[in-house]
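re: that chain from earlier
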Amino acid sequence: MAARDERVMVSEQIAPGLLPRVLNSFDMVAIFVAIVLFIIQASVLQGAGGPVAFSYLALGYVFFLIPGALVTAQLGLMFPQEGSLYVWTQKALGPFWGFFAGFCAWWPGVLVMPAIGVLVAAMLQTIFPGHLAHPWQVGLVILAVIWFSAAMSILRFRLTQNYVNFQFFFYAAAIFVIGLAGVVWLVGGHASANSFAVHRFFQFNHANYTFFGFVILALLGIEVPLNMGVEIVHPKAIKRYLFWGSIVVMAAYLWATFGNMAVIPVATNNPTSGIIQAVERAFNHPMAVIVALIVMWFFITNMVVYNYSFARLLFVSGLERRLPAAVSRLNANKVPAVAVVVQSALASALVIPTFIILKGSDTGNKVYLAFQAAVTVIWCISMVLLFTDVFLVRRWFPQKFEEVRTTPVGLLNVAGVVGALTSAFGAYVVFTAPFDATLFTTKAWDAWVGILTGGSAIAAALIYLVSERARKAAPAAPVETTASAG
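^ sequence. v structure.
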């Protein structure tokens, strides 16, 4: 009985009474798209060497995205609580692994925020060539985007989500134009910039198999919308967002990759701005500028979604007394403002030394790239835990498992195994080649990524041990002071 009791969380009893239910099905789809659909991946996949990129996308959908949707639906319907993976893993494996999974799900959000700011700066440089020539200028852009996201994330949640939903339609239009560029180029009598011969869809080799890893990275985050589990109006929104969100993501990546590949040769493709190059070449410069502005606006909005989504994991950690209770406090708008400010400050602390103090030196670039690699490994580890959870929650909560089950058990089991193995491969592939071979040897790269990943795991374990000692030394604070408004 003790084992079952330790799976009961304070947050699942308190959070529903603190946070308003405001998210509908469309809101969840918009959040899912903002987290998962980084359309510049259509340019990145160009480096796979042609149509084999489509094969890797298909494999990613079959072995990762679809299994992830099936497993997330089961876990989300069983425990639609704030904190998603944190809650599910504590139910499956107990408090330590629950916190560890929560940390592995949260830490990537902080580390990715500077990277999103870099993409905003890259779009500005595409629109205004020659500007932002100095690393400190890029750093200021990143900081501005981070703190804009913080300001938006502490507003009334319905207001912030309406802004995200509004941007969604412009983003969809921009993606449509990117794919349409390929159609216009071919209909206009031009030859495809890359061969679409059937045999090229099956040119798997050691030189390009790592692109399957990039596909996995492009699909990470399927569970993140459920960080706001208790803020969903109706449980039906969980299945709807997983179904429609997955359809949108799969179609958008295929469509935009086609547009980029039909218009831009591999040799001249820019992994960040290739999609903009495609629009300019197929249409004209003004159209390319419009699409670039919308994509840049998406990255700014995407930062907002990352900030408020991942802040919920800090909020849950505060309620569980794994972190100081202050991070679980809500402001007058009933959102975890302290958690937003804390993680925004942490993200800023990564930007200032890298871009402003080190001024983009080799050391600064190494730190930045190594952190991005480590976050990839850590996030994939969290996904291994997610896929494993589906087996263990069935053991501990068989009745609840059957009450909400909409997928045959055999199919769920296959999804869990396949998803876990694919996630592990996504982590492994990071170690196979440096993100920048001019800055790292393979040995040095493995050392940087291994140390940062191991250090993050050790930090999670130490925080848990310290919190355990504090919990045993002092009784739990009353609910009113643990998560009070203001």
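The longest helix spans residues 285-319.
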